[in-house]
Write a structure and sequence with these properties.
It contains 23 helices and 24 strands. By secondary structure, it is α+β, with helices and mostly antiparallel strands. Among the domains are: about 90 residues, PDZ domain (Pdz3 Domain, Roll), CATH 2.30.42.10; about 250 residues, no CATH class. Strands 22-19-18-15-14-13-24 form a 7-stranded mixed β-sheet, sandwiched between helices. Strands 6, 7, 8, 9, 10 and 11 form a 6-stranded antiparallel β-sheet that branches. Strands 4, 16, 17, 20 and 21 form a 5-stranded antiparallel β-sheet that branches. Strand 14, helix 15 and strand 15 form a beta-alpha-beta unit.
């Protein structure tokens, strides 16, 4: 009996489900999860996505390009392989309609074959020294390369790639020796060129061997995820399929917590070593596991211990992690070479470094500073932090210090929870709209408002953003800018103006498929968000009021550089009242004067030109003398940028006394926080944001 699908409706979502299957079909289906996943994945996107792609030949060609034309494939496949795969270029839509993955299956057969063929190439190529006198170039940008037409041509490219990596190591080692000689540093052993060259090849080979180990460990399920995501991402860059483990990691990252033992680990020479114990964690409370211990085996409670020596670090860590309340038993080797079995009961571990944190800036006045790395929330429902609540707490702590203004740093904050940003914006004004959210054409516009009249901070405010400030960061910055409640400082933001929600595919499986659970989730772009002034941040991002010089000023980066981004558009203005208490003309004039007279900002403008040049010129000459000369030139250029991290006269940063007391018993973390504020005092962008606060005051 041929496998067939009927469409059913469940919870408002049209999905694929199999009914009236014979025992033969059901048996086959239990062992072919991909068909089920693919059917559910595609149909959920088609039904829920804001603007799903039409299933036709044009769609097929986009998926083919997304899946096949990658830097990885250019390293392993030949043009002949691409010619063979191109037969399926316009068939993907038909495959989806008929629950087949012919392209995926034939691609995996070819890729696995090519990986096995190439596995010994690194060893063969790195067995003897390269000829470093030849003038030849290596292109590091895969987008500028073509598929090799023969094995010989591909092997030459591999030889160039490995030679480039050896040269980079060799140049680095020689530069360190030259610096040691110049500074008369006798602690650095001076080796001959031949010794350094052999060591560079040995380390490069080890790196390649580790890479092939990881490649060979990639499961068929992970490879299928790559194909599923090629289909998902042609709809837009943020629609993605998540296998169950990937979804778990996503939730942990967004909640800034995980379940485990609370030990930081690193791998060295195949051994998993404890580098640090998190204060207050299960390991800390149990007391026997120490920094420097080697973990040899892992057992789940009284179960059989598993030897993890030479196991992939990520796999070993997954064995050590586990549900709150469960026990793990670690066989460890102590520093005196004795071995011991240490039982630890797992618990929820909070990653404190990923939460909002504050400092005091001293710049004529005492100014509060809050760094927010992401818009985290309790995705795991384990009582995790909410960033809006943490922001309020940090503001209250700073107010006790009698601050005269507040700088919120959203640089490199990629976003997170939409609800959290709405609540956070409300900390700075009484009531009103924060963001407008629009779904598919038949869904009414949703104006998300702050309804809490309580205001945490009503004084001078600046928001610091950069090119990597995205999504929720852009919502907060745009709302503050539209209300004219504060001044946005920095560089243009990323330009992600879409909202994603998860569809749990397990919820749409019929009972006869329970045996294949879990099958994962799909994160789908279901909405677009708009500023309260009606414009979208999609593609355009947020332009700062005070625009500062930027090393990446001449490079086109952000959402518009991703594959298949959704377009910019605009809607009507929401009903809100501007503050109109800021003299923007005066603020911009004062800032422009400071920027013009700043040697550091002038240096950044020079840097922007050099960064653009390096971005465009992606070829490296593999002649040793020329390679070294070019690297020496780069080092000389970079030396002048050291002035960008020097102390700034009249500007300082320090931890709050309250935080120092809290961290008194955690000397490792206190040391990290002290280094953080020391670097903060050298940050010219933070300094200028505080200068703007003084102008506002």
């Amino acid at each position: 009996m041929q496998l067939s699908f009927n469409k059913i409706t469940k919870k408002g979502l049209v999905v694929f489900g199999a009914i009236a299957l014979s025992s033969f079909t059901l048996y086959k289906y239990v062992f072919d999860k991909n068909d089920v996943i693919f059917g559910l994945l595609f149909d959920s996107i088609r039904q829920v996505h804001f603007a799903p792609q039409k299933l036709d030949d044009a769609f097929s060609e986009k998926v083919f390009d997304q899946y096949i034309n990658t830097d990885f494939n250019k390293r392993f496949l030949l043009q002949a392989d691409i010619d063979e795969l191109s037969k399926y270029k316009r068939d993907i839509d038909d495959e989806i309609a008929n629950q087949r993955q012919d392209l995926f299956k034939i691609t995996q057969t070819i890729v696995n074959k090519r990986i096995k063929e190439k596995q010994n190439w690194s060893k063969e190529i790195l067995f003897k020294p390269f000829d470093y006198t030849i003038d030849e170039e290596y292109e590091i940008d895969g987008k500028k390369t073509n598929y090799a037409k023969s094995e010989e041509e591909l092997k030459r490219e591999w030889s160039k790639m490995l030679k480039y990596r050896v040269l980079a190591r060799l140049d680095d080692a020689l530069a360190k020796q030259e610096t040691a000689v110049e500074k008369k540093d006798t602690s650095v052993k001076i080796l001959s060129f031949d010794s350094l060259e052999v060591d560079a090849r040995r380390k490069t080979l080890k790196e390649q061997d580790d890479w092939f180990k990881r490649l060979n460990k990639i499961s068929p399920r992970d490879r299928f995820s790559e194909y599923a995501n090629a289909v998902a991402e042609v709809n837009d860059p943020h629609t993605q399929y998540f296998a169950p483990i990937a979804r778990k990691k996503f939730d942990q990252s967004m909640s800034a917590q995980f379940e485990g033992i609370g030990a930081r680990l690193q791998q060295k020479d195949g051994v998993l070593k404890v580098s640090d114990i998190i204060v207050g964690s299960p390991s800390y409370k149990q007391g026997e596991l120490k920094a420097g211990d080697d973990i040899l085996k892992v057992a789940q409670g009284p179960g059989e211990p598993v030897d993890i020596t030479n196991m992939d670090m990520e796999d070993a860590i997954e064995l050590i992690k586990g549900k709150k309340g469960t026990e793990v038993r670690l066989t460890v080797k102590k520093s005196d070479n004795s071995t011991k079995v240490i039982p630890i009961v797992r618990d929820v571990i909070e990653i404190e470094e990923t939460y909002a944190k504050s400092a005091i800036l001293e710049n004529k006045n005492k100014i509060g500073y809050i760094y927010l790395p992401s818009f985290y929330t309790d995705f795991t429902r384990n009582g995790a932090h909410h960033c809006s609540q943490d922001m309020r707490k940090e503001i209250e702590k700073l107010k006790k210090q009698n601050i005269k203004g507040l700088v919120i740093d959203l640089r490199d904050n990629g976003g997170g929870s939409l609800q959290e940003v709405v609540e956070m914006a409300g900390l700075f004004f009484t009531k009103g709209p924060v963001v407008q959210v629009k779904g598919k054409s038949n869904v009414p516009l949703n104006v998300m408002e702050d309804r809490n009249p309580d205001v945490a901070w009503d004084g001078p405010l600046t928001i610091l953003i950069n090119h990597n400030s995205a999504s929720a960061s852009e919502i907060l910055a745009a709302a503050i800018q539209d209300y004219k409640r504060g001044v946005i400082v920095g560089t243009p933001s990323f330009g992600k103006g879409t909202v994603q929600s998860f569809v749990e595919l397990d919820n749409y499986l019929l009972p006869q498929f329970d045996s294949i659970k879990p099958i994962g989730s799909v994160k789908i772009t279901q909405q677009k968000f708009y500023r309260i002034n009606g414009g979208a941040t999609q593609l355009k991002g947020v332009t700062p009021d005070v625009k500062l010089p930027d090393p990446y000023e001449f490079i086109d980066i952000g959402e518009r550089q991703l594959d298949h981004p959704m377009p910019w558009d605009e809607i009507g203005r929401a009903n809100y009242q501007e503050f109109n208490t800021i003299n923007y003309s005066s603020v911009l004039k004062n800032s422009a004067k400071r920027i013009k007279s700043s040697p550091q900002f002038e240096l950044i403008q020079q840097q922007a030109t050099e960064v653009k040049k390096k971005k465009d010129d992606t070829k490296y000459n593999l002649n040793f003398a020329k390679f070294r000369a070019e690297q020496k030139q780069y080092r000389e250029q970079n030396k002048k940028y050291e002035d960008l991290r020097k102390e700034i006269k009249g500007f300082n940063a320090m931890l709050l006394d309250e935080d120092k007391q809290k961290l008194a018993n955690d000397t490792a973390r206190l040391g990290r926080e002290n280094r953080w504020v020391k670097n903060l005092a050298k940050d010219i962008y933070v300094n200028e944001a505080s200068n703007v606060i003084n102008d506002l005051k």
